[in-house]
Amino acid sequence: MARRNQFKMSESQRRVRRFSESFRQEKVVELESGITTAREIIKEYEVSYTSIKRWLDKYGNRIKNKPKRIIVESESDTKKLLELRKRVAELERVVGQKQLQIDFNKKMIELAEEFYKVDIKKKFSDKPSSTSGTTEKK
Fold first, then answer.
1. What is the pTM of this model?
2. Residue 41 structural domain
3. Range of lowest pLDDT (14-28, 47-61, 91-105)
4. How many domains, in total, are found in the chain?
5. CA torsion angle for 25, 28, 34, 35 (degrees, to 10)?
6. 47 burial class (0-12, 13-18, 19+ CB within 10 angstroms)?
7. How far apart are CA 48 and CA 34, in angstroms?
């Protein structure tokens, strides 16, 4: 089984190297123009991919020249959107009124039940009466 000590790097192997601004910019230009690849730079200069990515973000033209998304709305779209928002507000108002009406009706039923001492909400059976539906054929 591999041990942690086997993977420790010596000081010379993990030395911190700093590349000049001009070197970084030069490598970014080479990358963007297609002269070299990131893999070649990593191998040749022992640089991490993360460092190259940071260089591209900082010095690269890809992000600066990236086309921006432009959204164009016509007046009819804007009017339609406003009308729909008004309609939603109106429907929300109607729903609120209906809810108030439902609450009022429930309270009225409760008061009527107390006053008349009858269970108004009681469900009655749906059995037909004995005289209904007894027609005979002659």
1. 0.37
2. 17-68
3. 14-28
4. 2
5. 50
6. middle
7. 19
